[in-house]
Amino acid sequence: MAVTDAAPIITTRFGHDDGHTIERYLATGGYEGLKAALAKSPTAVGEEVKAASLLGRGGAGFPAGTKWGFCPPGVWPRYLVVNGDESEPGTYKDRLLMERDPHQLIEGVLIACYAIGAAQAFLYVRGEMALAQERIAQALNDAYAAGYIGKGILGSDFSVDVVLHWGAGAYIVGEETALIESLEGNRGMPRLKPPYFPAAKGLYMQPTVVNNVETLSNLPWIMNNGGTRFAELGAETSRGTRMFAVSGHVKNPGVYEVEFGVTTFRDLIFAPVYGGGMRDGNSLKAFIPGGASAPWFYEEHLDLPLEAGAVGKAGSMLGSGAIVVMDDTTDAVKAAWRVVRFFARESCGKCTPCREGTTWLEKIMRRIVDGQGRPEDVGLLLDVCDNISPGIAWPPKQTTICPLGPSAVSPIASAIVRFQDEFIAYCGGTAESPVAINGKAYIAKPSEVAGV
Amino acid sequence: MSDTQAPETVVLTVNGKQIEAKPGELVIDAAERNGTYIPRFCYHPRMEPVGMCRMCIVEIDTGRGPALQPACMIPVAPDMVVDTESEVTKKAQDGVLEFLLINHPLDCPVCDKGGECPLQDQTMSYGPGESRMVEEKRHYAKPIPISDLVALDRERCILCDRCTRFAKDVAGDTLIHFQDRGNQTQVNTFPDHPFASYFSGNTVQICPVGALTASPYRFKARPWDLDQVESTCTTCSVGCRTLVQSSRNEVLRYQGVDVDPVNWGWLCDKGRFDFQAVNSEDRLGAPLVRNGASLAPAGWGPALTKAAAALREADPDRIAVLGGARLTNESAYAWAKLAKGVIGTDHVDAQLGDGLPAEVVLGLPRATIDQACAPGGTVLLLGPDLKEELPVLFLRLRHAVTHDKVAVVELAPRRSAVSDLATTTLLHRPGAEGEVVAALLAGGGREAGGIEPDALAAAAALLERGPVTVVLGRSNLADTGAGVVAAAAAIHEAHPEVRFLSALRRGNVHGALDMGLAPGLLPGRTTLDDGGQWFRDAGWANVPRTRGLDASGILAAAAGGKVDVLVLVGADPLADFPDTGLATRALAGARTVIAVDLFLTPSAQQADVVLAAAGYAEVDGTTTNLEGRVSTVTRKITPPGTARADWMIAAELARLLGADLGLASAEEILAEIEATAPSHAGLTPELLRSHAARDGVLVPLSVDEPAPAPEEVSSTEGAAPSGPAQEGESDSGVTEGAAEAAVAAEAADDSGDRQAAEADATTAQAADAVGDAPEEPAAPTAPTRPVLVTFSGGASTAAPAPDAYSLRLVATRKLYDLGTAVQHSPSLAGLVTENAVHLHPHDFDRLGIDAGATVTLTAAAGSIQLPAVPDAHVPRGSAAVLAFQGSPAVGQLISAGTAVTDVRVERS
């Protein structure tokens, strides 16, 4: 942690080859957080997490302690669902947490169950992550055998069962209501919110808390060290540390745990201990700050801190913590097409604008990339975008059920606005946009950047 | 539908106008009721909304600024502001329509749906004029058959989830699914699992595009060629409301109409597609008269003369009339008047040994479908597999179980489709219903009818749970039904508050029984003893004084040479009577057989005179469903040749016998029924035509009726059958009584007595006048009508214990059988399955037979051979077969009048 000197919180066992075993876990302070939690009342545990200002690490960045409080009182049973379906392109932090330190996650699950009063937790792990599944399964068996899971945990009257569920490989199942549908054995398709807010009508129509793997992995440390100490790290609303996955045209792609809220994009991409700068001496063209669905950032955004509020104000998001860096050899049109293709293929097919719209966008983009672009295509692309996400604004509005459809809009709007000349080269001219573009990150020139 | 709470309203603003909505109502419904139609594809009022098509997204502001929301998913809230016409709304809706169209083939000119297609209509109303998509569309092989009746064109499909939701949530036949994902999502069946649902036609009707088409209708007509009337299906006794659509005097399609108390818009495939039988080439177009060994076409004059001569020459006590369930109420009344009033015989039965005594059906407290399905209640099923015999009632019951927490206790001799819904299914020995129910009423705890004590105790506890409705019918045609009767009597005696819903199956059997086509009864649910004088006073000169024979008795008498004239009014005992042997002997033994029918049925082929009748969609009148709900059937086309309505044939025969029935039109007959039949007082043609009667009218229209909702009770009148009408089951808040008063006031007809009544008709008391001022032709002088029949049980005899060597026979029906409607509908005839004997797997070892082997079933009456199938759904010691299904006829094993049928099963 060279840049800010803060000690790592959740990646402490990544240096151990056997960090995933219960022996190593217990030898390095494992399940002490659970004991600390059980010594308190569930409400006090919740307060501790609130004091930590722990933001959800899945993408939406909602305060975890507050989310727990949304379950309607007196409605039982309630469930905890762990979202381990990490599939956003460029995001691979949860996979490492599950592979390298599964007990830390399990301990976090138990603490959360204790706080919200759940007797059953469901661990939904993405289908492709075979090693993570294997290690979590082993860890669950060991934890059961050691009495950390099951009936009467550590001699208390607190009992929890944890169910491991393997996904079947659908990106959309990372959306919490689609994950719940999948968990119930149905097609992984999102439910409408309202009325199906998981906190009220979640798994099996019972109150359900859905938390991300990284979020829960922080809980043992918070229980051991206190929420206040956690909140001492970071800035503004973004407290503690956070894992970022840096990929693309940098020298050292990888996952880095950094102090949240104060480390900047420039630190993360260029510091020798992190990304190490652009490959081959190239210069930065653009970067995606928070997963494929985020509007793109550019050179002028580099000094923004990795802080949810500041990034949001600038018109994008930290999302799932995936930073994809593009250097000046990148074809912006092709890059946008690749991202759109991902969303078109991962559309679940439930609602019309996403099913038909993202696929249409992909077809138009592919035609352009294939050299068959027409000047009117740019305007057409933007109008179709507008029909999926009215106003092309940030945060996005949507005609769809879930945010997947609007996710395909961000890369197109980003590329068209910033790299208009490349589209002109492909399409032989750019027609007037028939719709207004309102996202702050969709900027043509550096001087127009907002919120910096 | 059951908001019994304070009926406060929610006020919201739609397009700048304040509207009132019901609490919990969806925005899409509230707006539509108030004149603002929001376009939609996936939303269907009878299914859970899913908000998938996104066509109904409109700007809704609940205080946090306007946001696009699907109107089909959002319930109204106070001070909500909805804008369905804003620029944002319109742009979004245009966009959704464009998205739906980019992969749609736009083959409207060759699409059956063109002209009645919501996608086409809404594109014209809301959509863009031209497509901006230049890329290749999605392609699929088209169309593919997904069942024998339904074809699927996936290119036209807009993935609205209506058909798949219907199959899963409404029908419970989860056979069509979304497959693949994203833009490649398609609706399809899984290999080797066709969409073989009894309800598949509904998916065609609710498909908002031409993706699902029904093979019987494909390419038959364009919507603008069709002319239509509203009618009521008489394929079974549920009485689903339908549209009959025809072109060039040919019926081409039936569509379900949504009536709240009955079918909710659904139809079964048999009812939907048996229109083909109406158009059949095999229909009789002229009378036939026997000439030696063959039947030759004849004119109506000679045919009627020959029939009348036979009737005139015979002693009334040696004349019998079988059948009537095919008829309208009016024709049934005319035939009852001919048989009982003119000829003077009481050997009359509309049932064919496959039903229950008329007193049981008419005399027990009756339930409506809504009452049986009321939330939180318990249904005791003592009857047939509803899915096979009364399919849409099955849908209603299924909804009650899956949505309204209704518990079903099923008592049956073999598992049925209802078993999957039932909280508990008690499989009893055939014929043991009486002892099982006696044990249930005693709280269980002892073995009865082959059922364990614990299971009985658990079921007994369920019956304590909520209001109980008994669905009563015949679950086994190989017994006499005495067990069911004994069970009903015991329940009624122990719990007089329990109501009964009849599960008799034949089309208008309840109307025929109401009209007196049953031994011992006269029109209006009254007995010979109670109503004889009343009807004699009304001009029925020869009303018999002693009770006649039922169908079994009539056929036995005919077989014994004691029947001179056997009249078959839409009855085919050779095919439909459970005891085939007796039916054969009876037709041979009757001196003269007169058949009135649509087809030359096996029985009609044995007749001496065959009179060609007009059938469904060819006559006007009314029909009565299993609740006692009277609704209209409507003529749409002309009958083939010179075929005529059944009531006309009755009137002609009466005239030739020297009597005048005094009946000249269906409406006139209805007026006479209203005037004479005790249970039908107040049921005027005007009432039936009125808006208040759009869902049909329950008879009797008296306060004796099922308790209406509290706020709708008007407590002015006593319980006399001639009292005013207070039906009050409709949720419109308008009681039938008030409606009747209104129409009575409107209908100031030319009768002087009527005019006197008119003065009173401004109050809700108009019906009082009806008794005093009956219609012209039959004018009973007695001021009060006879009392209605009641049922109080009778001697019950327990079925004999089975012997160790025999299995007890269970004969049940399938929806698609050898009946005329199915056999003359080419699309349905092929769906009849092969027969087999189903035995519990354990019985195979005991009997030393192999699965699939052909076995010989031997009963006292005869013996047949069938393949044997192991089936754990049949209890040990029973042998289950299908009646009226394939050859050899199971009826050869059954002896009418024998309590149960025991069979030996041996290797052939």
Task: Fill in the keyword field for this structure.
heterodimer; A: 452 residues; alpha/beta; four-stranded parallel sheet; four-stranded mixed sheet; B: 908 residues; seven-stranded mixed sheet; six-stranded mixed β-barrel; 36 strands
How would you describe what is shown here?
Chain A has 19 helices and ten strands. Chain A has 452 residues and is α/β, with parallel strands linked by helices. In chain A, the strands form three sheets. Chain A has a four-stranded parallel beta sheet, with helices on both faces. A four-stranded mixed beta sheet of chain A has the order 8-7-10-9, with no helix packed on it. In chain A, strands 5-6 form a two-stranded antiparallel ribbon. In chain A, a hairpin with a 2-residue loop joins β5 and β6 (238-239). Chain B is built from 30 helices and 36 strands. In chain B, a hairpin with a 5-residue loop joins β3 and β4 (67-70). The radius of gyration of chain B is 28 Å and the shape is globular. The termini of chain B are far apart. The interface between A and B is medium-sized, with 35 and 35 residues.
Write the layout of secondary structure elements.
The complex is a heterodimer of chains A (452) and B (908).
Chain A: H1 22-27, H2 32-38, H3 42-52, H4 64-68, E1 79-84, H5 93-100, H6 102-116, E2 120-125, H7 130-145, E3 161-166, H8 176-183, E4 208-212, H9 213-217, H10 219-225, H11 227-232, E5 234-235, E6 238-239, E7 241-248, E8 254-259, H12 265-270, E9 284-288, H13 308-313, E10 322-327, H14 332-346, H15 352-372, H16 376-388, H17 404-407, H18 409-418, H19 420-427
Parallel strand pairs in A: 1-2, 1-4, 2-3, 7-10
Antiparallel strand pairs in A: 5-6, 7-8, 9-10
Chain B: E1 10-14, E2 17-21, H1 27-33, E3 57-61, E4 67-70, E5 81-83, H2 87-102, H3 118-126, E6 144-145, E7 150-152, H4 162-171, E8 176-179, E9 186-189, H5 200-206, E10 212-214, E11 227-232, E12 241-247, E13 250-256, H6 269-273, H7 275-278, E14 288-291, E15 294-297, H8 300-313, E16 319-322, H9 329-343, E17 348-349, H10 358-363, H11 369-372, E18 378-382, H12 386-389, H13 391-404, E19 407-412, E20 424-427, H14 433-441, H15 453-463, E21 468-472, H16 482-494, E22 499-502, H17 509-514, E23 521-522, E24 526-527, H18 528-537, H19 551-559, E25 565-569, H20 573-576, H21 580-589, E26 592-597, E27 609-612, E28 621-624, E29 629-633, H22 646-656, H23 666-676, H24 685-689, E30 697-698, H25 736-746, H26 752-760, H27 766-772, E31 807-812, H28 820-823, H29 826-829, E32 837-839, H30 841-847, E33 854-858, E34 863-870, E35 878-882, E36 902-907
Parallel strand pairs in B: 1-5, 16-17, 16-25, 18-19, 18-21, 19-20, 21-22, 25-26, 26-27, 31-35, 32-34
Antiparallel strand pairs in B: 1-2, 3-4, 3-5, 6-7, 7-10, 8-9, 11-12, 12-13, 14-15, 14-27, 23-24, 28-29, 29-30, 31-36, 32-35, 33-34, 33-36
Helix pairs in contact in B: 2-3, 4-5, 8-22, 9-22, 9-23, 14-15, 14-16, 19-21
